[in-house]
Amino acid sequence: MTIARVILINAPGDNPETAERVWKTECAPLMTRQAGCLSEKLMRSLDRPELYISYSEWDSLDSIERYRESTEHDTIKSEIRALQDARAVVWVYEIIE
């Protein structure tokens, strides 16, 4: 069973490109190196450019849980907090194939 992990990132401010750069250069590489992470994509809203979605696919809920307990996950949370007023909301879905 493939699991999708969806993170909504609200990065308000006058420079949303900073959020994009931080996610692509700091956060995504940490996530994609985790055992069980199959892919990760960052999407920017066309209607509200301060909104981003990180969409990752995982091989199991156990892999996500191991990742969430890792130091890499703590680093990613710190990177998100470092973006002024950035907030993240996380959802987990089973992919129906």
* Radius of gyration from CA coordinates: 13 Å
CATH topology, by name, is Alpha-Beta Plaits
Q: What percentage of the residues does DSSP assign to strands (E)? A: 25-35%
**Strand order within the widest sheet?**
2-3-1-4
Shape: globular
Q: Count every helix, treating DSSP H or I runs of 4 or more residues as helices.
A: 3
Domain count = 1
Question: Which segments are poorly predicted (pLDDT under 50) over 5 or more consecutive residues?
Answer: none
Mean pLDDT level: 86
Helical content (DSSP H or I, runs of 4+):
25-40%
CATH top level assignment: Alpha Beta
For the biggest sheet, the summary is: 4 strands, antiparallel
CATH-derived architecture: 2-Layer Sandwich
End-to-end separation: 9 Å
Q: What is the total tally of β strands? A: 4
Q: Please write the string of helix (H) and strand (E) elements.
A: EHEEHHE
Report the structural category.
alpha+beta
